[in-house]
Design brief:
With about 180 residues, the chain is mostly helical. Helices cover about 65% and strands about 0% of the residues. The chain contains nine helices and no strands.
């Protein structure tokens, strides 16, 4: 059981409340993970700034969800896996590809497989990618700048994954059908 408080908009520190309002507007709810992260206005503020940059980058929303779901699985964050499973399916990823990622395998879709593979490899190798890792990504039709952009997505998801692993928030009702355990 977590000893961390899950804040609401009313109980959150004042500096965390603008992030709550943005999340409410984006998702129609304030995710429990944000309720836990709100204890630190520095953390939730950094997360939100990065989150906004990631979603304004060159990847499609489906590609971003491929990255975020792969990162959640690789970092073994049950809350994030359930949440990003729902979002990935919502963004049009096939159930087959989502299930593959949830089971630590590459998706069938070539581009999503390249995204998933590179981000998983970056986590496992702690960023020490070799020429082969990068060339496989580029051969799937991506660019050099996108190799680096993956790091922004990885940073945003690491914040969420680690916060989830530390605070262990409950998975909200809309995501219960996507529960996952490492």
């Amino acid at each position: 059981m977590s000893t961390f408080h899950l804040h609401t908009i009313e109980s959150a520190p004042e500096q965390s409340r603008p992030v709550f309002r943005q999340l409410q507007q984006t998702f129609g709810l304030v995710p429990n993970i944000a309720g836990a992260m709100a204890e630190s206005p520095v953390l939730i503020g950094a997360f939100m700034g990065l989150f906004q940059k990631v979603h304004a980058g060159t990847f499609t929303e489906a590609q971003i969800q491929t990255l975020l779901l792969t990162n959640a699985v690789t970092n073994a964050c049950s809350w994030a896996v359930a949440f990003h499973t729902a979002l990935a399916l919502n963004e049009g990823l096939s159930k087959t590809d989502v299930d593959a990622i949830r089971n630590g395998r590459a998706p069938e879709d070539r581009k999503h497989a390249a995204l998933s593979s590179l981000t998983k490899t970056a986590i496992e190798k702690r960023g020490h990618l070799d020429d082969k890792d990068i060339s496989q990504f580029l051969e799937a039709g991506f660019r050099h700048d996108q190799v680096l952009e993956i790091l922004a997505v990885l940073a945003a998801s690491t914040i969420t994954n680690y916060a989830g692993n530390i605070t262990r928030p409950a998975v909200e009702a809309p995501f219960q059908t996507h529960l996952w355990n490492a």
